[in-house]
Amino acid sequence: KDIEQELKTLNPDDEFYLVYMPLVNTRSRQIDGFEVLIRWISPKLGFVGPDEFIPISESFGLFNKIDSWVAETAFKSYADLKARLGRDFKLSINLSSAQLNSNKLGVDLIVLANQYQVPPKQIQLEMTETLNVEYTQETDVLLKVLIAQGFNIAIDDFGTGYTALLQLIEYPAKMIKLDKTFIDKSMEEGKRSLLAPLINICHSQNLQVTAEGVENEEIAAYLTSIGCDYLQGYYFGKPERLEDLSFDHEWYN
Ligand code: G
Ligand code: G
Ligand code: MN
Ligand code: NA
């Protein structure tokens, strides 16, 4: 109730901010991009996590505002981040499933990418619960328009129960992101044999694979050995505000 009220009235620039989490390419062991995550500190409620406020914002139709703010703020930072990094990189943003039936989102993304001169091919759009929600004609059109513009679609949180393998293959995505809980389970003795075939199936369908929640070198090395394409996790970097990202690590060369 309070969350809803605060979300309705806040000025996003005052209360939201973004944190950036590195995406590491397993072949080069270099940073190839960042996933952008939203954070909210409310003067009244304190820190509220996205796990809590995103579902609420969706149920009250406030998500358009939040997604557009995230996209705009992330795209605005692209040129600066590219200059600091010294090369091009991918920006990955999470989209709310609640919006995937509206073409407002598509228009916003295209306009904003153009306005801030971010090539859509450098942008990855992560979608989760969508796969749960009905895949409507509108969703299909929206995704095809975005893909035609060059945007990349990723399926987020695979392994948490929402996505079936068949849906995965039919979805027009280029990337699948394996959730931390799924990676952790698959690393247990006796279960390791599950991961490599899954990665092979993805590759056979032209899907690249990102593993999330990588916390140490052992897991990183193992995932690399079975063909995982990208790694993400605290081992390579926690989500940090732009000004707190430090580029002196070996994976930033
Ligand atoms: O970053 P954290 O682990 O607290 O994120 C919790 C959940 O909220 C994750 O599922 C994440 O994908 C989602 N999330 C974080 N930032 C955003 C955002 O900017 N937009 C959307 N739609 N979801 C986000
Ligand atoms: O749903 P999504 O994968 O977008 O959520 C990303 C969230 O997962 C981040 O907010 C982050 O807090 C959490 N996360 C990412 N990497 C790690 C990790 O290596 N360890 C732990 N414990 N949490 C992680
Ligand atoms: Mn994500
Ligand atoms: Na997510």
UniProtKB/TrEMBL annotation:
Signal peptide: none annotated. The keyword Transmembrane applies. The keyword DNA-binding does not apply. Keywords: Membrane, Transmembrane, Transmembrane helix. Residues 1-253 form the EAL domain. One of its GO terms (biological process) is signal transduction. One of its GO terms (cellular component) is membrane. This is GGDEF domain-containing protein. It comes from Litoribrevibacter albus.
